[in-house]
Amino acid sequence: MQEDKLKHLILFFCVFLLTLTVFPQQMTEESIVINIEVPVRVFQGGNFVENLTIDDFEIFEDGIAQKIEAVYLVKKKTVERSEEKRRFSPATSRNFFLFFEISEYTPKIGEAIDYFHEHVLVPGDNLIVVTPMETYMMRNRVMEYQTRQAMSGQLKELLRREAMVGNAEYRGAIQELIGLAKSLSAAELELLGASSQQMDEFVSGAYDWMPLEKQLMKYQTILDRVEKLRRVDQQKLLDFAEILRNKDGQKYVFLIYQREYIPQIEPSIIDKYIAQYQDQPHILRELNRLFEASYREISFDVDLVKQIFADSSISIHFLFLTPPIKHVQGVYFQERSEDIYGAFREMAEATGGFIDSSANAVASFKKAVDASENYYLLYYSPQKYEKDGKFKEISVRIKEKDYKVIHRQGYFAN
Asked: From CA 213, how far away is CA 24, in angstroms rounded?
């Protein structure tokens, strides 16, 4: 009997000691405190609202209200006002990324670069420039020995050169499409009995010798090449977000993207060809391919990309430049930016960034800068945080006010 009691006692102490070794590990895992930082911009009309207090904000994670631990009002790099229930150390240093997705350098783009150097960039800021060809990083202390005018001039010359060289193949393909569209239009007009004067306005000379079917096939081949040249690489976007994730401070991406126009055969000309060649299936097939090519699918997973950028706490400011449409006799210029525009717009919204569409690059850039320089930093610790790798949706509201509130969409719990 005594032996049985001794065995039970030994077993009890073994279980107790095991509990002591396991229980603290569970407590450590469950008591992890994660602090979430949310840059928030609040507007009434077009004006930033700067008189809000910690009690004016409400923040939700996956629809569940969270306790706000601190709010800081930041202007450029300076914390102007703070309210803290728990003390934080906001990182307000600035990292700027100028991302140029352009096929043609314009004077207005140059004015935007001048404005950035003269009115935005200050000592201590970090700058990375992405051109159509390369990525360049400004040295931290470059402003100590170079004037703003010199820095701006160097960047403008660099961008002018690389926009021309980096997009030479793209521009060459566009010129080929223009020549083919003119030639195909001229061929149809000739069949319809157009006058010599009318024909002179259309004939390009480069492809007139080619049979119709060959011209249509060549046109489709070049169009496919253009699509590959302007295809967005999802992995590059994700790699870019990962690089930015590891940078301290606030991260601003100014994505400057030029509207694209693709030279097309006039729709009325295609209709006439279809009516004329009903008995020639091989030509009809090529004509139908041209109609199908007018629809474009987005080439990357928009939801994944915007969540990755939101998780990295990057503000993407999407500036969509709209140069005037060209006019070439016999050629219809169709806008082909709708897929990219929609995707980048969603990315900007998901990261709490600014969106503008304008032919004036410098005016658009000024609006983006004004919208980004003043903001609140909100901090909270999620209730019942679980490291489950899922994306957590963040929502910020202003109590009893109908203000426009802009912030990042959320973060991954990993």
From this structure: 77
**Residue 64's closest CA among 311, 285, 389, 386?**
386
pLDDT in tens, the chain (414 residues): 434 433 443 333 333 333 333 333 333 344 567 899 999 999 998 899 999 999 999 999 999 999 999 999 999 999 999 999 999 999 999 999 999 988 889 999 999 999 999 999 988 899 999 888 888 888 767 777 889 999 999 999 999 998 888 888 888 888 888 888 888 877 665 544 444 444 444 444 566 667 888 888 888 888 888 888 877 778 888 888 888 888 889 999 999 999 888 888 777 777 888 888 888 888 888 877 776 665 566 667 888 989 999 999 999 999 999 988 877 777 888 887 877 888 889 899 999 999 999 999 999 999 999 888 999 999 999 988 888 999 999 999 999 999 999 999 999 998
- Enumerate the β-bridge partners of residue 321: 258, 358
Write down the CATH number for the domain with range 94-173+198-372.
3.40.50
Return the C-alpha torsion angle 67, 354, 244, 168, nearest 10. Answer: 170
Residue 180: partners with Cβ closer than 8 Å, 6 or more residues away: 204, 207, 215, 218, 219, 222
pTM beyond cutoff 0.90: no
Report domain extents, the chain.
94-173+198-372
Burial of residue 108 (CB within 10 Å: 0-12, 13-18, 19+) is middle
Q: With b meaning 16 or more CB within 10 Å and e meaning fewer, what string describes 24-37?
A: eeeeeeeeeeeebb
The helix or strand, by DSSP H or E, that contains position 55, with its residue range, turns out to be none
For strand 391-398 and strand 410-412, is the pairing parallel, antiparallel, or unpaired? Answer: antiparallel
Q: To which H or E segment does residue 413 belong?
A: none
Distance CA 158, CA 160 (A): 6
